[in-house]
Amino acid sequence: MYRSHTCGELRESNIGQEVTLAGWVQTVRKFGSITFIDLRDRYGITQLLFGETLNKELDEQPLGREFVIQVSGNVLERTNKNPNIPTGDIEIEVSKFNILNKAVTPPFTIQDDTDGGDDLRMKFRYLDLRRNAVKRNIELRYAVNRSARNYLHENHFMDIETPFLIKSTPEGARDFVVPSRMNPGQFYALPQSPQTFKQLLMVSGYDRYYQVVKCFRDEDLRADRQPEFTQIDCEMSFVAQEDILQMFEGLIKRIFKDVKGIDYTDEVERMSWNDAMLRYGNDKPDIRFGMELVNLKTVFEGESGNLAAQAIFEASGFKVLTEAETVLAISVPGCSEYTRKQTDELTEWVKRPQIGMNGLIFIKCNADGTFKSSADKFFDEEKLKNLAAICGAKAGDLILILAGREERTRKATSELRLEMGERLGMRRKDEFKLLWVLDFPLFEYAEEENRWVARHHPFTSPKPDHIPVMIGNDPAIKDAANYLSHPYANIKANAYDMVLNGNEIGGGSIRIYQRELQEKMFDALGMSKEEAQHKFGFLLGAFEYGAPPHGGIAFGFDRLCAILGGSESIRDFIAFPKNNSGRDVMLDAPASIDDKQLNELSITLSV
Amino acid sequence: MYRSHTCGELRESNIGQEVTLAGWVQTVRKFGSITFIDLRDRYGITQLLFGETLNKELDEQPLGREFVIQVSGNVLERTNKNPNIPTGDIEIEVSKFNILNKAVTPPFTIQDDTDGGDDLRMKFRYLDLRRNAVKRNIELRYAVNRSARNYLHENHFMDIETPFLIKSTPEGARDFVVPSRMNPGQFYALPQSPQTFKQLLMVSGYDRYYQVVKCFRDEDLRADRQPEFTQIDCEMSFVAQEDILQMFEGLIKRIFKDVKGIDYTDEVERMSWNDAMLRYGNDKPDIRFGMELVNLKTVFEGESGNLAAQAIFEASGFKVLTEAETVLAISVPGCSEYTRKQTDELTEWVKRPQIGMNGLIFIKCNADGTFKSSADKFFDEEKLKNLAAICGAKAGDLILILAGREERTRKATSELRLEMGERLGMRRKDEFKLLWVLDFPLFEYAEEENRWVARHHPFTSPKPDHIPVMIGNDPAIKDAANYLSHPYANIKANAYDMVLNGNEIGGGSIRIYQRELQEKMFDALGMSKEEAQHKFGFLLGAFEYGAPPHGGIAFGFDRLCAILGGSESIRDFIAFPKNNSGRDVMLDAPASIDDKQLNELSITLSV
């Protein structure tokens, strides 16, 4: 070993000892005939004191930032203690030093507030990883990993590795494929998830499975998506939904405790997908704050909204509202005194293309009991008062109303709610609120193809009560205009999402485990018997040999770490991430390959 | 939950309790009006007793092998206890049962001694995985995984995930590549190992890294090779070879303890590569038994072998021996009474194409002090006695002598030694002997290209003493015939292999961490400056910014598990393995993909 101690280890109790340290030069501070150097390694920073003799040697062999050095010396008590770092009580009086490796000046400073831009830091990721801010993220990631493994182990889950070179069965997302040299013209696919394998493991009787595993999706990358990402992937046999919810809220609570020191003793809230959409306009609501949506008028899932409000709209003749499919409101607390400039800015905000509304109606519920609205023309004081009462607004609130097509309006109101919550400081990074969202629709309607698609994936079971509906009806949609009246439109999935602070951190379902039902599902998704057999014959086969009831969940590990680390960006929590074009700019990958390689793989480029 | 207890859980203390179990029907035994069923799950087997009433129900709803059922009933003390299973004291008097899923008759029996052939079991891997023999292997694998992680965690290693979609830098083995849709004509590669990433993590100051990680090599598959395999991959900073040896023999000892209950207190033996080759003819010797090679005549690494023996060969005029490049002998204990049939069979054994020798010479050292040889024509009693003394043979030994070209003869003698050890029961599956093999040559000579290739990989450092030899000499080989006299031929690597019972289970090295030396290495391997920059520019760059001394090791996880499980085959320890053509016969992968997929990837087939 090049060291007797790490740079984070020495304390007052070590004073008087001869030690050897090795690490990186963080700073060099010369004071006349003596020099102080902060030496850094993964574990901390230790102050080195170079006295008069060595100071001269330092002049001959100057130490720059990020040089790697080894020093020996005596542990002294510091005269000027630094209470901010664990080694702040001591310093090393260096008797000998040795340059292990020099360093040229880094392209950016290795500090929390670095001067390096994003591109530069990605190119020199190995230097960016030295910064404390990034190091803490990677350490947190490991702590989450370790905590999850311990919990799952204690609950009898087994880590079983599933293959990476599998078969392409594109269903929703695109597969990354791998040409096979030994089987010319054939391809492996990289797994989008180990879904079918973990189900097979249940069929094989392994009872409880987990894996912290890389998955791959060849999607057009949106901000903060990665082509390769990590899941905490779990599956259990002989369970119903309730068993899964309890087991895995236990997992997240354990991670809170181990990683953040948080005792999450609150019961985890549960909400149906329907309620989440009605109350928050969103299937992953942030429930750290209220400001719930008031459904004044809607077509959502057969809801009509508030009839009294609609009577007021009719009476006022305000066509924007009478003709709108959906009218939604939120009451923003304490904002009744917003200025014209502020309400104009909010109007601009909802008109941005990302939100896409035509305008914003507001009602100020003034502290003195009067009302003021952007629609004063249509609503007299009495109507405004009634609307405010319908919205549950209190004096001092600012009611914001959006109107338009159902889907867009609901989404926009949800975004507006989150924005106002953010502006009012209601979304605190150090507050964590878990939520189970339940009872999702099993199917979504795909208009272009006039067929059903699986909302979760084709292996998700309907609610037990809904199985006969699924088995007993023809999935074909004869009347496209009225697809909502097809029996399949109301089938709910035995599925659940775990939501943390407005982010979906995990999702799963109780699976189909009967061949007949699985075949019906493939049929419902427009897959022919032959296609189903070609793609999933092994699973259909497995279900014939005694498949147990089973279900599971997968957590987005990158996202979970980011939220626990108080960040919006998963990239900060991945050691070697790719950029938004799927490139690794450090490696400069992907890249062209040799003709020899192409020939061996029996493929040619058609670029 | 479908159960109150597992099938492995109930004991005498549970007698009288009402319980619910769920699992698979292992066997059905009818005795007149009652029926016994063994119910199986991952945790064990519990006997169920169906009394008179239920027996009738069973007639209406017969339960077959591998049916999945749920039963409720009372825990009874068995009259006929089974001491062979942990639940053998009790049985369940079933009051209610419920078929959760039926099963058709499996294509082979789910038992230790199954009647299923290899192909059938691979196709129905999900059924094969139910067999106890396979389940034990998968459980052992998890135990090894868990033990390794715990040890590494306690020693401050961090699990840091490295990317799977990287850059193709074929060097030795072929890469699997992945066409990039978003970057037409460009490809990612799947990692052959995380080698460069773990080195970058050391440059980034992470100090101690590990990962249990999938790696990929597109090689022509030999028996028991897999295109995807798992490594326990580790790296440490500020270490010399001795630190690594101690840390990682600690890891393996911990695994022995946790997984096998073995206290491996012996010091782990160490041997130079040179000694291993001379004494065992093999760089991964099985040291559970002696029977070492006697180098009667050789050209290995400048050794001449035993001169007295060569004098005897000359005097006898036995051209097979006088003209051979190498003559090697082993003394097989207690086999002097081998019959003609037995020695003939051994002769045939060495003449098989896999061994490839022309013949075998033996000397029987009879118990009465006389000698008898297949070369009596050339050697009188006195010469045989002297040769036996040179070979260190005792009365009762059978000396086996092989002669021919150095490389083939050494390999053949090594194989013969292992074969004789096997036949004599000296290679016990329950005996474990570790060995470090050290001081490998840094380079191997590639005749076709008349250049050096890296024996380990291009990042392995020479022994510190040998660095000046490497830096100070031109790697070009001017005189191909005398490549052995080139200074590079004698450079030893700062590398180490861990050998367990004759299998290499891990290997690693102290790495190059200076840009100049790394460039010299690439130069020595015939890589141009441009090529080195294109392939490994990021690493050369990283070495400029303060790279610490570092080194590491990678263990072949599949192989390690197989040896600990007493098996020769890694396939038995992989949940979903591929066959020797790299196919997953269960999935039927690889497979053809859609033209749409090919088009999106901008590739066409040239099959």
From TrEMBL, chains A, B:
Family matches, as Pfam families: GAD (PF02938), tRNA-synt_2 (PF00152), tRNA_anti-codon (PF01336)
Domain of life where this protein originates: Bacteria
Span list, region Aspartate: 195-198
UniProt subcellular location: Cytoplasm
Reaction equations catalysed: tRNA(Asp) + L-aspartate + ATP = L-aspartyl-tRNA(Asp) + AMP + diphosphate
Enzyme type, top EC level: ligase
Database matches in SUPFAM superfamilies: Class II aaRS and biotin synthetases, GAD domain-like, Nucleic acid-binding proteins
Chain residues that bind L-aspartate: E171, R217, H456, R511
Documented EC number(s): 6.1.1.12
Record's function text: Catalyzes the attachment of L-aspartate to tRNA(Asp) in a two-step reaction: L-aspartate is first activated by ATP to form Asp-AMP and then transferred to the acceptor end of tRNA(Asp).
Similarity annotation: Belongs to the class-II aminoacyl-tRNA synthetase family. Type 1 subfamily.
Protein name: Aspartate--tRNA ligase
